[in-house]
Write a structure and sequence with these properties.
By secondary structure, the protein is α+β, with helices and mostly antiparallel strands. It has helices at residues 17-25, 51-63, 88-107, 130-149, and strands at residues 4-5, 9-16, 44-48, 70-77, 80-84, 115-116, 128-129, 160-165, 182-187, 193-197. It is globular and about 50 Å long.
Amino acid sequence: MYNSRSNNLIGFHGCDEDVRDQLLIKPNQVKISEKPFDWLGHGFYIWENNYDRALKWAKDKQKRGEIKKPSVIGVVFTLDYCFDLIDSEFIEMLTLYYRLLEKDFLSIGKELPKNKDVKEDEHKDLLIRELDCAVIEYLHQRIKEEIINVEHTPLKEFDSARGVFTEGGPAFPGAGVQKKSHIQICIRNMSCIKGFFLPRK
């Protein structure tokens, strides 16, 4: 009843300037991320209402030689049916699908992927989220299979995923707030993206 979220939201996508310009000119040609360590699974990533964090992310990618000119594009989007990891219902669902995935891996004698630290990260925030990504992608796949194979399933595919992430070390000595805390959105259904815009300075 409360899981459909159709109101428009504003977010920001950190990227190379060329990617920004292409999205402005060709807004239907959205490239999704399908990396094995995507924090919320595969999709198009948006920093919810956080221009500065999107730009910092792009600048960090430039330092690693992954992009030439860091930039940010604004995104107008809806969450629609959202796998929201701020909501207890979906956290419990994630735990359930983790157990199912663990059982599947045990049955074939394979080890589950693990979340890992990046060597340069002094805060040990487990930035390589291979386990999280595997569980979330497994959940989406199992739901898709049930929709195809079960006539009257209550399940439906998610349009987006959303999570709060705390990282970057304390904002000040003894703080519970961390420097890089943010809300991240992963859009799976591209019709949730209503448009792109060039943010004002």
